[in-house]
C-alpha cells in the first residue's frame, strides 16, 4: 500500500506556516501533497491561514473576516512573508494540495476557483465540519473530500460516508486500529495527523494508515524506510 506524506501548512516545523516560502520548501522536500488552510477575508478573498485571527502568526491583530485582502497584505506572516491567497499557492507550487475549509462560505468560494481552473484532479478538500464537506461535494462534481476529527465518537466512519468523504484525517494520538479497520472496511482511507516523531511514524505504519501529515521534511524521507 502506498503511504502518502502531506506537508502540514507547508513544512511549518522549519518555515513560517501557510506561507509561499513554506509551500515551496515542502515541494522541494518531496512531500506527496501540501496541506493548507483557507479563510475568507472581508472582501471575499481566499486567504491562506489557519487561525480565524491573525494574532498568532503575524504582527497584526484581529479577525481575518474583518480585514480586506489589502489590509492582510500589510502584515508580516514570518520572515517577511505575506499572507498568500489560494490562487498564489496554485502558481507557486505544482504539488497536489489538500485545502482545509472552515465553513460553508469558504466551500462556496473555493468551489468557484476549482471549477474555473479545473482543479478536481489536483486539489483535495478537507474540513472538520460535515456540512462544509457536503457542500463542496455538491458544488464540485468529482471532488475528493476529507473529514477531519480530533476527538470523535463511534459514528465517525458513518459521518464520513454520509458527508461523501473518501478519507478520514484523524488525530494520531487518539487513533486506534479498530477505527482504521472499520474505515478500511468501508473503503475509506485514513490519514494520521500530526506525525512529527519516529514513534508516531512507527505507530502510523503499525496502524496501516494510508498516510500522515507532518511539520517536518525529515518524516517524508524516513517514512520511506519505516516498517
From TrEMBL:
PANTHER family per UniProt: GLYCEROPHOSPHODIESTER PHOSPHODIESTERASE, CYTOPLASMIC (PTHR46211:SF1), GLYCEROPHOSPHORYL DIESTER PHOSPHODIESTERASE (PTHR46211)
Protein name: Glycerophosphoryl diester phosphodiesterase
Any single Pfam family the record assigns to this protein: GDPD
Domain GP-PDE: 3-224
InterPro entries: GP_PDE_dom, PLC-like_Pdiesterase_TIM-brl
Signal peptide: none
Highest taxon in the source lineage: Bacteria
